[in-house]
Structure formats: C-alpha cells, structure tokens
User: Fold 3-deoxy-7-phosphoheptulonate synthase from Hymenobacter gummosus.
Amino acid sequence: MVLTLEPTLSADAQESLVAQLRELRFKVTPVRTQRAAYLVALGPKDVDIRRIGALPGVLDVHQVSDDYQLVSRKWRVRPTVIDLGDDLRLGEGTLSVVAGPCSIESEAQMEAVMQHLVQSGVRLMRGGVFKPRSSPYSFRGLGLDGLRDFYRLARQYGLRIVTEVMQVSQVEEMLDYVDVFQVGARNTQNFNLLDALGQVDKPVLLKRGVSGTVEELLHSAEYIFSGGNEHIILCERGIRTFETASRNTLDLNAVPILKEKTHLPVFVDPSHGIGIREHVPPLALAAVMAGADGILYETAPVPERAASDGQQTLDFAESARLVEALQRTYLLRRQLAEDGLV
Amino acid sequence: MVLTLEPTLSADAQESLVAQLRELRFKVTPVRTQRAAYLVALGPKDVDIRRIGALPGVLDVHQVSDDYQLVSRKWRVRPTVIDLGDDLRLGEGTLSVVAGPCSIESEAQMEAVMQHLVQSGVRLMRGGVFKPRSSPYSFRGLGLDGLRDFYRLARQYGLRIVTEVMQVSQVEEMLDYVDVFQVGARNTQNFNLLDALGQVDKPVLLKRGVSGTVEELLHSAEYIFSGGNEHIILCERGIRTFETASRNTLDLNAVPILKEKTHLPVFVDPSHGIGIREHVPPLALAAVMAGADGILYETAPVPERAASDGQQTLDFAESARLVEALQRTYLLRRQLAEDGLV
Amino acid sequence: MVLTLEPTLSADAQESLVAQLRELRFKVTPVRTQRAAYLVALGPKDVDIRRIGALPGVLDVHQVSDDYQLVSRKWRVRPTVIDLGDDLRLGEGTLSVVAGPCSIESEAQMEAVMQHLVQSGVRLMRGGVFKPRSSPYSFRGLGLDGLRDFYRLARQYGLRIVTEVMQVSQVEEMLDYVDVFQVGARNTQNFNLLDALGQVDKPVLLKRGVSGTVEELLHSAEYIFSGGNEHIILCERGIRTFETASRNTLDLNAVPILKEKTHLPVFVDPSHGIGIREHVPPLALAAVMAGADGILYETAPVPERAASDGQQTLDFAESARLVEALQRTYLLRRQLAEDGLV
Amino acid sequence: MVLTLEPTLSADAQESLVAQLRELRFKVTPVRTQRAAYLVALGPKDVDIRRIGALPGVLDVHQVSDDYQLVSRKWRVRPTVIDLGDDLRLGEGTLSVVAGPCSIESEAQMEAVMQHLVQSGVRLMRGGVFKPRSSPYSFRGLGLDGLRDFYRLARQYGLRIVTEVMQVSQVEEMLDYVDVFQVGARNTQNFNLLDALGQVDKPVLLKRGVSGTVEELLHSAEYIFSGGNEHIILCERGIRTFETASRNTLDLNAVPILKEKTHLPVFVDPSHGIGIREHVPPLALAAVMAGADGILYETAPVPERAASDGQQTLDFAESARLVEALQRTYLLRRQLAEDGLV
Assistant:
C-alpha cells in the first residue's frame, strides 16, 4: 500500500500517522523524494482502504498487489517523465537518444564525439570513466579527473552526460559532474549503491542485471525510489543465455512487460544487447517499435581503435544514419498509436 | 565446398566427377533439389578451387568456411525466394503474414478465421492438426481428417496453409493437403523428420529449437536442403532462458544474424516468443524492424475459449489492427533501406 | 487419479467402469501394461475417493496432485525395479553400471569393449548404431546391421545392451535386438516415439532433454507409461546453460528431486554431463552420493580415435578404476542409509 | 607471466627490475601479499623466459597461458592451504565444514547454533549480519553491532566465523571481527570490493556469481590476489538456469574444473545450490565426491522460523547427521585417492 502525503504535513503529524498504521500492524517505510512524501505500508490485506485514505494528512492511497510498491503502475498510472531542463525530458512521449563511447579516453576523442552528437541533434552523451572489467589488468578508466573534463566539455557543447558509478564513495565525488548516474549490469543488485543513489537528486539510469529478471530490476528500482529518489530510468541491455552467436540476448519482451508493470521510463541498449556493430541499428529500431522510451548506443571516432567495446561501436556515419532512422521509426510508432493501431 | 552442376550433366558424368573429387580426398554428398543439382564436398582446404571449377560439368564452385554449406550465404549471396504461385512469394522483398489458431478445432472456427484473414488481406493461414503437448492427456489435435477439411476450406477461401508435421510417417499422408510444412520447436533436431522433408517438394517452415542455437538451426536446415528440398524458411520463436515473466525469450538478435549467415527467408513468431496476448503486436512490429521477412502469429474467434495457447492469441479486431500496423512498419523499413539508412 | 484394476476384470466390466467415471465428468484413459491394468481419471477434485474405490473391479485408487499421474510417487510409493532376468535388476537397491562406446564402429571395437566389461564385472553395454548428429555430413552410425552384430556379440559375452532409437519406424525393426531402448536428449519430447515405445515390452531409458525441465521429463515418461509400458528409467545427462567451460551442466539436483517425485529408477550420464574425459569419474561418484540408481558412461579402446565423443570417453584402465570406485562409493551410501545418516 | 621475487629484494632493485621489463614492452603489475612479492608481466609471448629468470632479484618465473595469472595452477602447482591457526587449515588435504544460520538474529540463536557446532566437531560458523535482499522492505540484518556479538560469542566457543561483506566501507569496520570475509554471489564482480579485500590480511571466501562463469570467478579471484591478498577460497553455490524445480542449479562440474585450473581451495554451498532442505545432504555428499575442499551449509535451531532461507536450512539433528556423513564420505575419497582410483 502506498500513501501519498499532503505536502504541508508536519513532521509530528506524519509521525502520528505512522504510529496509527503500525497499530494496524503495518510495517511502514517513510519516503521523501524530490517530488513528494509517501508512506509504504506493508501488512494486512483486509484493511478497508477508505479508512486509511480518510486519515488526516493522506492525499491518496492505493493497494499495490506487487511486491514492489513505489515503482508499480498499479499505484501510479501516469508515466514518470524526468525533466533535465532546457526542454529535455526523458520518458513517455519522447524518444531519447543517448550515444557516445564506451570509455572516455581523451579530450580529442570527447570533442570529436561531441561535435558529431551536436550535428546529429543528439543531446545526451554516454561515456565511462570508471570501467568495470572482468580482469584486473584491463584498462579501468580515466577516473574522476576524466569525469571533470568530460563534464566541462559537455557543458561547452550543450550536452548532458550519462556515466557509470561503481561504488558508494563515488556518488558524492561524482555528484557535481554528472547529469544522469548510470548503474551498470554488474551492480543492479549492489544494494548499498542503490541506497546511496536514493539519497541524491540526480536521475539514475539502472541497467538490468546480466542475468537479472524483470522482477529483480523493479525491486532494485524500488531501492532507489524508497531511498528518496524517484527519477529512475530502467534499461534493458541483453541477458545471458546459452546462445553464443551474440554477446548477450537482447530481451525486447522486457520492454512492453516493463511498460505495463511500472510508470518509469524504459530504455534499451542494443550495443551491449547484441554486441555486433553492424547489427546494432536494426535492433535499435526494433526496440523503438517494442515501445522503448530511449535508446543508448556506443559510437566513437574510430571504433577499431577504441579502448573497449570497439566491436559493438558505430562510427559517426553509421551513428548519424541511425539517429535519423530512429526518429522516423519513432514517428511511425506515434502515428500508429494515434491511429489506434498499437 | 559447394559445386553447382550443369543442368544437362548425365548421371555417368556426375559419377565420374564425384570419383575425381573423392580421389582428391573429398567426402562428397550429391544433392538434387527442385532447382538444381549440387555436390557438397568436404575435405582438404588447400586444393586450388579454380582446378575444381574447371572440371567438366561444374557450373560454379564456392569455398564455404562455415560447417553448414548449402544454406550458407557465403556460397549463395542472393536471397532465396519461395514462389507459392498466384503471385505469392516468401522471402526478401516482401513481408509475409501467417495467421491463424494454434489448433484447428472445427469447421466453424476455421471459417471464421478464414473470413477474417481474407478481409484483412492475409493470404497464409496457420493451424495445427497434430499438436505436440507436454502431457499425454492434453488435446492432441484433430489429425488427418481435420487436415483434409482445413485444406479443402482454405482452397475455397483462396488461402494457403502452414501446418505442423510431427513424424516421418505423416509426411506422405499430409503431402497433398499442405502448402507449407511446419517443423515445431521440439522437432528442430528430429533428424529423421528433416531427412524425410528433404525428399518432398513442399516448402518447410523450420522453427528454432526451444534451446537451439542459431548454428544448430542452420545445421538442421542443411539436413533438409542436402536431402533435396531447398525451399526452407527459418523461424525464430523464442528461446528458453531463466526469465519467467514471459513464456519464452524472443531472440530478435537472431534475425540480423541469420540474415547475414544464410540466404533463406527468416520469419518470426511473436506469439510463442512472448506468450502474452497484449504484448504480441509490439514484438511483431519490432521483428519487422529487426529485418524479418515474415510474421507468424495466433488469432482465433474467441481466444479465451481456444483449445490451446489462448493466452497468447489475438482476437480478430486485434489481428486486423496488427496486419495494418505490420504493413506500415514494413513500408517504413523499405523506405529506410531505399534511403540508405539501414 | 489412478485406479488399479483387478487383474481378472473383464473387458465389459472395465467398459462399464469407464462409463461410470465419465458420468462423474472424469476424462478417462485406460492403460494396460506388462504388469497391470489402470485407469487414469482426470477431472473433478471434489469427488469422494472412497466412493470410487468401492466401485466393482477397482483394486485401489489414489488421488495424484501432480499433472503427471502414473509416474508419480504420490500414487506408487514403492520404487519400480526392472528385472532383466539372470539376476540383473535396475532400480533402487542396486547400482547399475552401463558402459560402452558412443558409437558402435566395428566387431573388433565391440569385442574389445565387451572383454573389458566382462572383466570389470559390468553387465550392461551402451553403444549407438543410429546417431543423432547436428550436421548431416557427420558419421550417422552403422544402422540396423550394426545393431544385429552388436546384439549377437553381446549375447556371446553375456551382456545386455542399451541403444538409442531415433524414430517410430525403428522401434519394430530394433525390437528383437535390444535389451533396453534409449531415447536421446533431442527426442525427449518426440511424443510419437514415446507413444510407440509405450506399445512394446522392452524397458526404455529416457534421457532428459538438453533444455528440458524435470517436470517435462516426468510428463514424457507418462507418455510411455500411459501407452502401456511401465519399465522406464530416467536419465539426467546435463542441461544447456550459459557456462562454456563444460559441454553441458550436469544437474545433480535433479537426482534427489526425481527420486522424491517418481517411483522410476534414476540414472546419470556424467560423460555427456561434463564432456571432459578426466572429470567424468569424480562426477560419476558424485552422482552416486546424490542418490543415482545407475551410471551410464562412455568407454572405448582408444578414445582419441573414437568416431564420436572421444573427448569424453574413458580408456579401459580409467574405466576399470571407475567401476571399482563406483562400487565402493555405492557401498558407503548404503552404509550411511543403514546407519540412518542419509 | 608471473615472477616471484627474492624476499630480500630492495625497493630500488625491484623498481629497476620493473623498468627492465617495461623496456621489453611488458605491462607490469607489482604485487605484495602476506606471503611474498610478485610481478605480473603481460605482453610479448616471444621473450626467452630464461633471460627473464636470470634477471637479478627473480626467484622464479612462469609463463601462464591463461588470462588470469596469479590464481592459475599453470604457475603454482601446489595447492594453496590457508592456515587459520589452532591447527585449522582450509584447502586440499582436509575437508572443511562451515555451518550456521543464513542471518544472525539474536544471542540465543547464536548460542544454540554454537553449542550444536561444538558438539558436532564443526569449527567454522557462517552467519550474515549484512544481508543482500532483493526487496528493500525485507530484513537486512543486524549490522555491525550484531557482528561484534557474533565474534565475541564465537571466540567463547572456540569457533571461527565466516560472514558476508557487502561494500567497501564495511571492510575496515568489520576487519577486527571476522575470521573469513565472504563475498556473496551478487558481489562476485563488485570490483571495488574485491580491490578493497586485496588490501587486508584476512581470508576471503568468494562465491561464484549467480550467472557467473568459472572463468569470471577466476578473474575475480585475480583481483583479490593482485591486490595483495592470496588467501582466497572459491565457492560454487548454484547458477541460474531455466530449471525452476530447484532454487538454483548446483554446478558440480565446476569443482573438478576449478581444481584443475587453480591452486585455490574450492568449497561448495549445497544449501543455496538446491534450496530444498531435505535434498541438501545428498548434494553435500556429492560435492565431496566431486572433489570439494569444503562444504558450507545452513543450519538453525528452528528452520521454519528463520528470518531468511528457512526452506533450505537444516535443523540440528539433520546437521549432526550430515557432519558425520560428510566425514565418512571424505574418508572414502581419500582412500580411493590413496588406492589410485581417483
């Protein structure tokens, strides 16, 4: 059960409300986000919800049959749209494109990508400075210094940046230099990191775990929301299966399933999802038709020379063509929706 | 190595050619299909291919580095298009739509579906009379009698039918009453069945195994082709993974990968691929953007009362909307291709 | 619900019994096996079972909450033991060892293996004459002629043979030359083949599907039992997962789970289960401690030169050591059971 | 390539050695652990290794063809044995038993378990105070206070403790109150945590990831070793597959494969591996025959009332029987090894 509280509710009044719910044998978690204050109350199913709704300070209340609560569409039907300012919104009603290299490598590389993105009308750039690598001997990113340069340059080009955070201590350090925190597929269930990201006011792009279920992804998002941050984007990026012809198996089933279960925006990363450069564009377009609110892909000046993930990275010509194809595909999806066909 | 033989080559001349290749330590498999005669020669890699090409009776010869040979695009670059007559072609350059119930249940059911398909402009109908079921106590289909009725009615409505064959002895019995044989996901590696289907002149729609790799699917197609039948359609229908939010995990990665590796048409079955009725349409459209040459889905008069698979079956209103959306999506894909964007 | 019928029940009396059950809205499947006659009745759960048990001709009756019925331990608590004569029994209370080459290749090969088995005290030999192969160009076995030789030689050496049947038409052809039919992992859901094996009086060793669940394996066994043959052995042989360090992932969890769910014997094939020769013995011993009733493994005179599966085949020295280790391990398991420790 | 350095080598001499290797185009990582100092040098394969071995300060040098280096058995053939003092050693040559509750809940619970363990001759106790939970609303453990109590009581009972660390900041906090750090299956690729654990002198029990490969597990161990801590135990605990009859699929194939590839001890956790209480013992015994150096399982006073994992937790009677069965099974394995049978 999720209770939205009246914005003017005093701390004392809230405490008294919590106490009443606990008397009714509910386990109560108070949540205060950028947008509002809520109580998540888990417990008896047989309580008359109108009685709860009539308690002083309660704006509205919803029973949620899912195990997760705040991220469920059973509670909040209207899609969450995240406003980054300057008319840049993420979520239903728009198709976001996030592009850039796997790893930030140098100023020259960043500027080349930024010029390409600006020319192509892409406003969000991805790029990692902390790189999770299977082997300790691989390139592990430029770190915080690289991030500061990345952020500074992005501002010059009018771009917003999405970049991966790997551990709790980085959240604070990175805070002033990111627009959107990315949680990678190996950290989807790093619960301490999710807790920490619940406490900051920057959007979080949360990737699905390498072998994470849709249900687990929603639970992980619930960590962030219940921690106090409701600006969350979910991202399908391929799961691990027996198939070895592709790097991962992009699970586009997850897109309409997630859109039904949650009000959060759903993005897709076809670069990791298939892992084969020439097949990234068709999968990106497929993701749009499956209902994705955004596409995240890798592009770099010379993919063959990238420090990581070169085999799944587009060059700028391919990237520019993809951006145009994405826009036309999204336009079709909107028209089909307007015509009542999807 | 695949050798295409001159159409006029005599049996004696072919035998002599085979003998020469065996002397060069090749293992030779002679293949005669509806279209042409070939030799598949496996063995030494260091033979000068021009020398082979110059042998009498050889029209052309290609080295094929894949383990499969006849289905490989390394040998035959031009896509295979299967002509069913009456201007009905399956394969690249068109988008085929195959729709119908999971199981054929009655004349009334069939006629209702047929009227809907004709109205919607769909020319191919699916429907099973032999149903593979996990439990021996489930409905196992109407059998051969049902097939005869199915075929007769389809002819009246001007429809072609696609229906599943489960065992060798059925191939002969069904032959006069099918337009396209379907091999189900549990029989993708039923090699005796594939052998038998290699010996008839009816197209075969070969579904990917529940846990079959792309590579295994191509090998299974090679069985049919090398048996003498080159009219094969491959069909992605979802694979088994750890995810339980959907019935299977539709692997759209397989579409561009297959299109690159083989000249055969590639269809997609989103009904089995996701197994959730309301999510079938977005996945069908996604499949088109991923590059599918055809879409196979389930529709029935009253899905809730279908003898099998009702939870993933569209009603006619949903089906009609999907057909229109598929056509518009395919049109966009063609335009993007013409504009050099995909 | 499973009803065991009185052995002396006439056909008329049985028909009348079936009619009464149908009146009670049960779907009834009559089953007659080597051992007894049964009725499987599916339908209403609220019928008083004592009333059914009191019907004339009913020896006993059990409600079975599983979807499968005849193979369930909820109906038959006592383990099924299959008697091959000459004091050779398969099932609980003994540890069966089945060893031999992947493929039967020649008389010399067979005789070498047979001598080794006799010396080691192994009484069951495996070996394939019909080989399911991913590629049509691979060696596909010696066929029926090879089987006749295999059977004749085995008789001379006092051995029983286990060999794979791949299609319905082979069942009849092979019947006089096999002691135990094997159904391979690609045919676990070849329902027509299971039906056909239900109609013969030879035991069937049914392998789990490459990606088959425990539940599906039990359903497939139900096909054979309900067809009329209750001499079935289940065999775990490794499933397909994301792990590539081994050929398959041997699922020893399946052993105690199957032993709990069914009265049928459970064997394990560690050769396919791990696919790495030097690691077959520890997995074989592990299978015994997990509760297996039998072990099936591959051995050949010169594994390196075997026509198939050489990389997972033991030589005779390794095989002899394994047989001794298996016996000592099984002895320990029995002692632990006697001492109430497992 | 791994170089073991002379213990007396000065910092200056080591630097000069590193410089020489870099001149030969090696990427060099200096490593100093509890036991020795090493250089990991990656790069050219064509350098004469004798030339490297002859450099001043080099005790020995080995080429390692694996991607991981320090954990590879190709470099260090002798198994790593970890000495906890008081004659308690973990690794080859002994069978370690680690038992205890999933979560530490109270002093009464801890003392009950401890008495049981002491009586059964078990010297290592597991128990979590930081619990990774899918949902933020689940019980998340008693935290640091609980750990201090756990450690204090364990000392009174003469037990060593194994407990999970979830994030970098806990490493320092927990250091004085743990005997062995456990890294859970969701943190196997939490590289920052692995880095941090490389910097402390306490053994680490590293669980395999839920969908982690054997190769990835070894790479993660390499993080810890190359960070400076070579006291690492690997632990197989079941992987995620399509099978839903068990919680996970215990992959005992991994045991002999890991024992071949690495010199580190290999433990098995059958409780998580199968997740069904009554089937934990047979899988534990199977793990011993597969070659495990230790078994980790869950036991609690009243499993039905445990705060987490009750369905896979043994009561004390079951646990006592298992300990005896484990010892007798391990004894057999040693005898078989002495007799040259495994």
